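Two records follow; treat each independently.
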Amino acid sequence: MKRREVSLMAEKFASVREGVRNSAVIKNPVLFEAIGIAPVVAMAVSVKTAVMLSVISTVELVIIESFACLLLKKVKQSFRVLIYAVLGVLINIPLFMFFSRYAPNETANVSIFIPIIAVNSLIALHCERVAVKNNFKTTLVDAISASVGYVFIVFLLGIIRELLGSGTFYSFDLKLPVKFSALVLPFGGFLLLGFTAAFFKRLIKKKYPDEKPEAAFNLSEISDMNFAELKTALEEDFNPFDDFFRAEDNQKTVAEETEKPEKKKKLFHGSEKKLKPEKEEIIKETEETPVVTAAEPVEQEQPESRVRQDYISEFDDLLAELEAAKAVKKQADAEPEEQEAPSVEEQTEPSEASEGGEEE
């Protein structure tokens, strides 16, 4: 029994050591995963600021990753990321108040960068990669080991930049003859971080030749989580405006189908409501006669362009009134000519009578 317990303990210790080695060394968050770089470059300029960054990042990573493992496994990814940010802000506020009381000068110098820690990509990546896929024990080991790797690089850069850039150590002046003040600036932090990553990659390749630290930058496992849903959306040619355009096309087709009979009705009957009763009788008589042919050219010219069909309805009433008035005028001009035109005999008889009277 004792041998089994010892072997189990040895296996557990080996698994924990393997997890720490992978998360802190081979897949170092800053050097090889290239996450959480902005706070390191901006804040790790001295030992005190490195302490601030290390404490805030460690507390946030451990708490949020544990919370995600216990309560957020069934929540959608987009909502989980928002929850990570909200929790980061809530944890960041009391820590900021604590450091602003006991280290006011350093907190004032880097206060603009402290909110960046609340939305650190280190938290989101490890929560999505480990916390929502594993049990609490594995999640806690990953959070602690990633925090150790992150804190190690933060302290290393903070010490080097304070020594060489400011010539001090924990705010004590060392009176160095040469200072490289550029290291305190952000681009100096990027250069120092690049040389540090190359140095540690060389050491890892010597000790673990089969490992590939540069592969830690591959984030395909996070992007593959929703790859199936994205693929189906692309295959369906999803367009959020499809419904809008389809509804608009349907309305146009319905309007075109109902517009033709409405036009005919307007051309024949649109002016009847607006004319006087006397004119209505005249129009009815003219419709029975073959003189009125106002609707025939409209029927022949029915295939019009869509733009004209959309806008002609506003002028249908006026056109109908004009056509009716023309028809009335033609009929009024035609009737007196037929009734008042004298025949040849009637024209000759008065002339003869006038001649006889003259002779008498």
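The next record belongs to a different protein.
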Amino acid sequence: MEAKQVTVGLIVGNRGFFPSHLCEAGRRDMIAVLEKAGFRVIALTPGDTTHGSIESLGDARKCAALFDAHRAEIGGIVVTLPNFGDERAIANAIRWSGLRVPVLVQATPDRPGTMTIQDRRDSFCGKMSACNNLRQYGIPYTLTRNHTSAPDSESFAADLRDFAATCRVLSGLRNLRIGSLGARPAAFNTVRYSEKMLERAGISVESLDLFELFGWVNKMKDDDAAVAAKLAEIRAYVKSDKVPVASLVKMAKFGAAVEKWMRDKELSATAIQCWTAMEEFFGVVPCTCMSMMSNRLLPSACEVDIMGTVSMQALALASGRPSALVDWNNNYGDDPDKGVIFHCSNLPKDVFSCEAGQEAEMDYQEIIAGTVGKENTFGTVVGRVRKSPFTYLRVSTDEERGVMAAYTGEGDLTDDPLETFGGFGVVRIPRLQELLRLICMNGFEHHVAVNLSATARGVREALDRYLGWQVHLHE
């Protein structure tokens, strides 16, 4: 799976009494680096302005008009400073473009042997002026790891990876529509949230009663085309030899009904009431259907955890890979930096081990089978999450403070031995005890989204700097 390509508008800053020839090479080199990193670039050409750079009021107008003409495509702006650059032209171009996208400010370093008047850049100093003006204009921006960074450096390549994630997350969360299917389980206050705070952040929730969905399901025949297609998809997705055919047909009807609802309401993600009405009155768990949606980058969270869905979606947008929602579930022996993550599970197939004999398979939900009967709980996707670096994220609505709050960070999924059921893995996170204390002291939920990628910095930047949420980065 590949992350969505990001189109960026490129601004090449120039200031006439510094060597303008540096802008010619700087523009050319930056475009090559951006395209190699997977970006599509929209920029002024040397036919538009001197070396395709901006310095004057007229240059800024041309740049703004170009960006405005491509506003539906541009997901971010890169400002490169081959020399000091004109801070007003940069700020004006961004303001006049009307774009509300992430802005990355890069300054090319001087070299001790090229500090004469013919080749001196002073980008080191010019970056401060550019940022000062962006701040005055109320334009949020992102900095590189190092104050100055050569376009072809490893550190700038990492900056670009983070920036791409930031652009994808911001674009994908704005105007996101989530489906809320069923009521929150009565015993689960932990997944309460403020729908109004989400709406103010640009995220809408479309609710549907389980009764209505099951009404649609009951009208379906076993041989309906949509049911047959979904049944074939389920069987191709995960091994289901242990599961009765009648249960598979129920899952197919449920999956077909949910996906039609999502198409009709233009939904990109869901949160579903998965216990216990589903099992008692319908006779399966929805986990496999949810796993399949998450695996197709349509995140689906259990227990009507809408904020869990937001967290899953942010990580999926950042990486282009499926996210899972898990419990911070258990300690792992006496190691303070290790723990167990777990769910029943609806984890996407992408996160499971691919080793022979360890592949995920469909089974029954062991936890609630004792209450509603094993025959009513088929449909979980069980197995071990594979060894990999991973990013975790939890977003919450903090009504007491009136803010959107979150924490994120990175760690490793290990291959430490563990015998259990459901979908599970062992994690190692440096200073895990400090993270757990932060979770408890700030009232975060025990659910957390995980993604087999390293995207925490880019995600934090999108949520914190550009959406104005309060985000803790655990490093």
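Discussion point: The radius of gyration is 25 Å. How would you locate this feature using only the token line?
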